[in-house]
Design goal:
The chain has eight helices and no strands. It is mostly helical and 162 residues long. It has one domain. The longest helix has 24 residues. It is globular and about 45 Å long.
Length: 162
C-alpha cells in the first residue's frame, strides 16, 4: 500500500510540476520512476521486511534483497533516461514485477508476518495491486505512435470512392 501511495503522490507531483512537459503518460512514467527508485533504496535502508517476503529455502535472502533493490533503482532511472528504449524498459519493468509476484503470493498464502506492515487481508489486497503496477509500467511507457496512428488507407479503395 505504501508503494501505491508513493506512486500516486509522485505522479501527481510530476503532473503539477510538468504540466507543460508531455502528456499523462509522461507524468505516469515519471511518477513510476520515482516510486521505483524510492522502493529500491528502501531495500537497502531496511532490508528485513523484504527478507521476510522470501521462504526459508531461498539461499542468500539478504543478498537477493539488495540485488532486487539495485534492479528497482536501475529500472526507475532507466524510465527517466532511456528515451529511445522506453517501451523496452516498460516491458522489462513489467517482467520484473511479474517475477517478484511469487514473493507476494507466498506472504499472502503462508500468512507471513512482515515487520511494519499490517497482516491479514492486507497481503491479499497487494496481489491485484501488483497487476495495477504491471499495467502502469506498460501503459506509461507505451509508444504514443501506436495510440495516434491512423488506420492505413488502401489507395485502391480510395480511388473507388473518388
Amino acid at each position: 500500500m505504501q508503494f501505491l501511495a508513493i506512486l500516486i503522490l509522485s505522479t501527481a507531483l510530476a503532473w503539477l510540476f510538468g504540466r507543460n512537459k508531455g502528456g499523462w503518460r509522461d507524468h505516469a512514467r515519471r511518477g513510476l520512476a520515482f516510486a521505483m527508485v524510492f522502493a529500491g533504496f528502501s531495500h537497502f535502508a531496511r532490508s528485513e521486511p523484504f527478507v521476510q517476503h522470501l521462504p526459508d529455502w531461498v539461499p542468500a535472502p539478504e543478498a537477493l534483497v539488495y540485488i532486487t533493490g539495485a534492479i528497482e533503482i536501475a529500472l526507475g532511472v532507466a524510465l527517466l533516461l532511456a528515451r529511445t528504449r522506453r517501451v523496452a524498459v516498460g516491458q522489462l519493468l513489467a517482467a520484473y514485477l511479474v517475477a517478484v509476484l511469487p514473493a507476494n503470493i507466498y506472504v499472502a498464502v503462508a500468512d507471513v508476518d512482515i515487520d511494519g506492515q499490517p497482516g491479514g487481508v492486507h497481503a491479499w489486497i497487494r496481489l491485484p495491486l501488483q497487476g495495477l503496477f504491471i499495467a502502469w509500467a506498460l501503459v506509461s511507457t507505451a509508444s504514443e505512435r501506436a495510440e495516434h496512428a491512423s488506420p492505413a488507407v488502401d489507395p485502391a479503395s480510395e480511388a473507388l470512392v473518388a
